[in-house]
Model the fold of this input.
Amino acid sequence: MSLRPRPALPGVPPEIQSRMEAAGLRRTLATRAVLGLFLARPAGGLTHAQALALLTARGLDINRVTLYRLLDRLAGCGVLQRQADDARTWRFSLALPASRAVEEGALPRFECDACHRHFELTEAGESTRVATHDLLAALARLGHHGERVDVSIHGTCSGCAEPAA
Done:
């Protein structure tokens, strides 16, 4: 086992690299390729099948089970977030960096049911942030440890909405 510090992955934020290192994730070609997918489209969620198709189109022959495990490991260490859509299909997207999550609190997001892109509602009012903190405090009073609150609004984004007739 080498005690030398690992060189930084080009184009990967240091916080993501440190989360991966803390979880013991190796920097394989597949790991770098999957990270590249999500860093290239930070607002959009991808299903396992979409990620597999994009990787295959880029010339990476990756086993689908390996990809499932890698997506789960990246979600487990906080690099990706995993959400189920209305059809119970898992969608993965980049997780909010811990520094922003603490600084801003939980931001609600809008998910387009047509294209499945996610939009953070950065202009959410203070009352929304207070409500999320109240929910976490209520859990703590019950002896639970909540880590985050996900508020998601579903509908159709302006890009997918049909023009008014």
